[in-house]
Design a protein that fits this description.
Distance between the termini: 60 Å
Strand content: 15-25%
Helix content: 40-55%
Number of domains: 3
Largest sheet: 3 strands, antiparallel
Strand order of the largest sheet: 2-1-13
């Protein structure tokens, strides 16, 4: 299909042009600025904001590697064209970290994220697309996605084939539409926003609930307003908190409503943290809540990687493999996001892990050194066993000598 057929004029007859990489990024930024405010509003709730920050930073910081597997051997490929946007620069304006963080943010809020695969230049570029789009499906089952917007006074419309886009989901029931946090946890977010609004009013009134002033005579509306205003000036607001009010002329103040303790205000906020943790898979201790022990937090951290991050990473790996590699390359090449980077602990824990892996011939010394950003050792590319730390090869050959070079 000619490239020009991917563009059309809008109903007003405005000029349609081909979007460059810069225009696509500008279009994304403009759409974000015009967003209805639901996501920024939800970011005002601390549990949701914390979960968003933790998840997006986690995915953004995961290293991406490309491997080729042949005859049982695995080779790490570092110079493939498709690896550049995931390791060096996603596009002229975004680092790989920011690209991955933005994509996960879109999935978090809206349930799905798109990135255009620009192969027109010397290097492959990945450009995050606007959140709003239209889906068209042909009689043959092919899917096309239409993105429309205005950049510098020009109405731009472009239709993308599904093969041109990286398409990621948060939750989905049909593989077509994604379900994000704004839809899944709308009631929870609204509850926490209401609690924040209540807290603001509560403390604005000097942490005093509403009440009724009783007077021994009948007053017209004007005098009622005077009494109310005078009382609020005397004890209302934080500056007048804990001041003593003097009532005269037989006036009597009666408190209405229930106290903050009776309303279990703090407990309601804690409930929101638990709900956000359930929706997102982020452990409560990462949201600064709960009273777990260190051992419990460590176990929760491992579950966070295996149960929350790993399914997301697998989806990304499979999408990258299908969309960024050539058909013949998909047979024996694959992407892998290194989840071990998220599980790096203290020096003692890492040293015990490396020792166990080397002693049981599961890792070579140089593989451990690379994880610590250390130079390779000339004699560190052979598997070792615990018998005097000789090489596995020498042990199989019948030798008992200790390898003194290691």
């Amino acid at each position: 299909m000619p490239f020009s057929k991917l563009f059309r004029k809008n109903e007003e007859g405005a000029k349609s042009v081909i979007l460059t990489s810069d225009q696509l990024i500008a279009l994304r930024e403009r759409v974000q600025e015009e967003f209805d405010g639901s996501a920024p509003k939800a970011m005002g709730t601390s549990p949701v904001a914390a979960a968003h920050r933790i998840l997006t930073n986690s995915m953004g910081s995961l290293p991406v590697d490309l491997f080729r597997k042949e005859n049982g051997k695995r080779e790490n490929i570092s110079n493939h064209r498709a690896l550049y946007p995931l390791t060096v620069r996603a596009n002229a304006h975004l680092s790989p970290f920011l690209f991955k963080k933005i994509m996960e943010s879109k999935c978090f809020w809206h349930g799905e994220a798109f990135a255009y695969i620009d192969r027109s230049g010397e290097r492959v570029e990945l450009i995050p697309m606007p959140d709003t789009h239209e889906l068209y499906e042909t009689e043959t089952g092919e899917r096309w996605y239409l993105f429309t917007g205005e950049v510098k006074g020009v109405n731009l419309t472009r239709k993308f084939h599904e093969a041109e886009l990286i398409h990621l989901f948060n939750e989905t029931g049909d593989g077509v539409r994604g379900v994000g946090m704004l839809q899944m946890a709308r009631e929870t977010i609204n509850t926490d926003l209401s609690a924040q609004k209540y807290a603001g009013k509560f403390y604005k009134q000097g942490a005093r609930p509403s009440g009724v002033i009783e007077v021994p005579t009948k007053l017209d509306q004007q005098n009622k307003d005077k009494v109310r205003n005078a009382f609020e000036r005397a004890v209302g607001g934080m500056d007048n908190a804990f001041r003593v009010a003097v009532m005269d002329l037989g006036m009597k103040y009666t408190q209405l409503g229930i106290s903050q303790k009776d309303a279990q205000f703090i407990e309601s906020r804690q409930f929101t943290v638990e709900e956000v943790s359930r929706f997102t898979g982020v452990p409560m201790y990462k949201l600064q809540a709960g009273k777990q022990s260190y051992e419990s937090n460590e176990a929760n951290g491992i579950e966070y990687v295996t149960d929350t991050l790993r399914p997301i990473a697998v989806q990304w790996e499979e999408e990258f493999r299908y969309k960024l590699l050539l058909p013949r390359e998909r047979e024996n090449m694959y992407f892998r996001m290194n989840l071990a980077a998220e599980m790096r602990g203290d020096d003692k824990s890492r040293s015990v892990f490396y020792q166990t892996m080397v002693d049981h011939s599961l890792m070579k010394p140089n593989e451990c050194r690379r994880l610590e950003e250390l130079d390779d050792d000339p004699n560190g590319d052979e598997l070792l066993v615990t018998k005097n730390l000789t090489t596995l090869k020498r042990l199989v050959e019948g030798g008992e000598e200790v390898n003194e070079n290691i």
